[in-house]
Amino acid sequence: MARLSAETMAQARELMSLYPDSRSALVPICHLAQAEEGWLSPEAMEEIAELMGLAPAEVLGTASFYEMLRTEPVGRYMVSVCTNIACLLNGAYELVEHAEERLGISVGATTPDSMFSLEEAECIADCDRAPCLQVNHRFFGSVSDERFDNLVEDLASGRLEHDVPPHGVLCRVRRQGGLAVPAEQVRAERAEADRAREERAAAAQAEKS
Ligand code: FES
Fold first, then answer.
1. What is the pTM of this model?
2. Chain segment 123-159, per-residue pLDDT in tens
3. Alpha-carbon distances, residue 198 vs 19, 194, 202 (angstroms)
4. The ligand 1 atom nearest the CA atom of 131
5. How far apart are the first and last CA of the chain?
6. How many Å lie between the centroid of ligand 1 and the Cα of residue 6?
7. CA-based torsion, 9, 15, 21, 25: positive or negative
């Protein structure tokens, strides 16, 4: 795999500078890296580990915990059909069967052209539009078989490119300009907060004794 892009690395370094403990930036950095290929490859995780001074296993341990981070390749569009109770009662399993037939894959698989992956999802909090699904975390409700077919066609043809970016891309517009507050000021305020915390702890200790 290609190394993470220079832009991603620069954004990752900027993210690390925003936290008192740079390790706190791990999840957002994983999202940044995932936006490059749609998933977190072992090479990408190794590069993140190297950047953050972590073991690759620590990155994998975190990434594999979160549903939105994928450590296996997925299609350009991850179709997540909710099969929780409200959707189930409104035909979710029939919709899953239809999706399998339309895409020619089973749940858990990816189409040979790497365009679509299909999975079942727990409640996605869109119950009033059951049965519903997400594509790359974008919502589609009241999905009939026909609506599903239209959705697949629109995605495959690129007609929904603007509304549904490729898997891994969480947002199209990023904050520009980095840290608005001078780093020196941040350091001074953090030091002051640390001092105040220590004073409170010392006062509490003195009260006890
Ligand atoms: S049960 Fe499907 S969105 Fe809540």
1. 0.81
2. 999 999 999 999 999 999 999 999 999 999 999 999 9
3. 20, 6, 6
4. 2
5. 60
6. 40
7. negative
